[in-house]
Amino acid sequence: MPRPSIPALALWICCLCLPLAAAAQPANLALGKPVNALTDTVSGQPGDVVDGDPATVWWSYQGNYTEVSFVLDLGRAEHFTSVVQFPRQTSLLVVEFSLDAQRWEPLHQQTLPWPGNAEVAVQRADRPRARFFRYTGSNAETAYAGVGDFQVFDADGVFADGFEGDAAVP
């Protein structure tokens, strides 16, 4: 029986490892969780911000000012290391987090150049805990403000394949 060459053996090992690397992606803790709209809906649904697809956008408009705002409930307190949001037509965004939906801590505030269509990622190496996230995006234009998606991750916690990493370590 012929022996496989070193490059062929290396390629075979890499192919075996690819599914393992793909499965080790942190789970989006916000995916499919309840969203409480704090502003009016003109297009889309508030749940569009947690469907995992930045192309589905929830748009809001109040007539004399433009703001989109919601509270996301993870269902229980979770550690997190990053929050990714996809604002649309947004000049200013503010993100806060809370354990009880009463006392809010600032996570991120940013001014975006118009038209404010971006992917904004915020990293937190200290892994704070939160159950609720409050997002507010606004613009000074006569245009709807929207959110394409809002994602919460814990890189040291539960992965998409169910592996919990060091999440049990206090």
UniProtKB/TrEMBL annotation:
Origin species: Aquimonas voraii
F5/8 type C domain location: 17-155
Keyword Signal belongs to the record: yes
UniProt-recorded name of the protein: F5/8 type C domain-containing protein
InterPro entries named in the record: FA58C, Galactose-bd-like_sf
Leader sequence segment: 1-24
Keywords: Signal
The keyword Cell division is assigned to this record: no
